[in-house]
Amino acid sequence: MKVLISDPLAREGVDRLKEEDNIKVREAPGLSQEELIRTIPEYDALIVRSETKVTGEVIGAASHLKVIGRAGTGLDNIDITSATKRGIIVMNTPGGNTISAAEHTISMILALSRNIPQAHFSLRSGEWNRKKFMGTEVYGKILGMVGLGRIGSEVAKRAQGLKMRTIAYDPFISKERAEQLGVTLMDLEELLPEVDYLTVHTPLSSQTRNLIGE
User: Fold this and answer.
1) What is the pLDDT of residue 159?
2) Burial call 83-102: b when 16+ CB within 10 Å, e when fewer
3) Where is each D-isomer specific 2-hydroxyacid dehydrogenase catalytic domain found (predicted)?
4) Domain spanning 2-92: which superfamily?
């Protein structure tokens, strides 16, 4: 099997593939669409992250392609309809970045509440405006989450550790499951006016595009 990796991947993952005798791996990050279209016909598998756009044109040129692997969660950079028509399997790794995404979310909330980017820029400019960038505590604030799946539930746990109140909109999560997580479920229209901070943890699809607003 010939595998093309068109985005940077963790060395450990690439090395594990190369250990297999029946797999021939080529790493080619940064290919343009035209280069990818010219290259893809000779490969059986394609592994991408988010940078590579696997369009219908790319899939149409992939005469031997059997599987597309997405090292990550979102699949909006892959034309799944075209892949399905060609009988190409599309796979992702939904749990691979759950903790990282949750931690990043909390770090962004703290940076926002404490004006960290603005204070950093001010300090590097030779200024010291401590009062201007004091910000506010997140203690007791309300965090609203759109999506309470793997990432949303991990964000909720961390926010609760900071003594934030957690509310969420997710039509696919039961009230019982939300209660187990210590989260109050609400309709989206009910949730939005209540929140101090809003996070979104949904895959991009026709149902979720512009869910919050254009």
Assistant:
1) 98
2) beeeebebebebeeebeebb
3) 3-176
4) NAD(P)-binding Rossmann-like Domain (3.40.50.720)
3-state secondary structure of 203: coil
What is the C-alpha separation between 176 and 89, in angstroms, rounded?
A: 34
Of the pLDDT bands very low, low, confident and very high (cuts 50, 70, 90), residue 214 is low
Q: 21-59, pLDDT tens digit by residue?
A: 999 999 999 999 999 999 999 999 999 999 999 999 999
Sheet holding 2-5, edge to edge: 24-27, 2-5, 45-48, 67-70, 89-92
> Looking at residue 32, what is its pLDDT?
95
The DSSP string of 95-164 is TTTHHHHHHHHHHHHHHHHTTHHHHHHHHHTT---TGGG-----TTPEEEEE--SHHHHHHHHHHHHTT-
Domains 2-92 and 98-200 share a fold: yes
Q: Is the pLDDT of residue 204 over 80?
A: no
